[in-house]
């Protein structure tokens, strides 16, 4: 049957049929990719976050679908999809599912599990483990996750001292660091992230070429990368303006 997506009745019928197809493909044919699509359908179309959460969790636990582990990790972290709106997020459970997704070779899951472990702000909820977090971020970067490469670059730019170093001290011995400052490695990871169009990495890379940090000075490359970063920034602003305009039409 051909649907006229300009007609509201046809759109509603198409959406309902889509939901039926996803349910059949998930529950009857047991296809993990279709189960994930069912979760997305329940989330974005039906706005039934509790059901979507259950689908994502089941698809991760029962079928080992990495992207669903990532989604349920997000739900767990935010406290989304709970039966009670007052239930808070659970970083420990989120990490469990992010790590599961990472084991299943989902790069975004590796990124988020790594970020949870290196975060200082979550140390009261989840034990900080910079070494393991660094390894997870490295794994994500190797799977071409631009954000992970960018964060690794930042860790090499500043260095990460051991937590038992006094706040007012300035550690200099290599043994004082979990990740030692290394501008050459920072440059390498920033280059990789910029090549994958991470705007912030391109901006940092521009400064590195300008100052000669981790590489030889090159004003032309610095200018080119600055132009690239500003171009990406303008594109993001344009997309945000278009989104706000479209939202305004519907009000």
From TrEMBL:
UniProt keyword Repeat, yes or no: yes
KW Lipoprotein (keyword) present: no
Domain of life from the UniProt record: Eukaryota
Record-linked SUPFAM superfamilies: HCP-like
Keywords for the protein's UniProt record, in alphabetical order: Repeat
Gene Ontology CC annotation, any one: mitochondrial intermembrane space
PANTHER family noted in UniProt: CYTOCHROME C OXIDASE ASSEMBLY FACTOR 7
Family membership noted in the UniProt record: Belongs to the hcp beta-lactamase family.
UniProt protein name: CLUMA_CG003780, isoform A
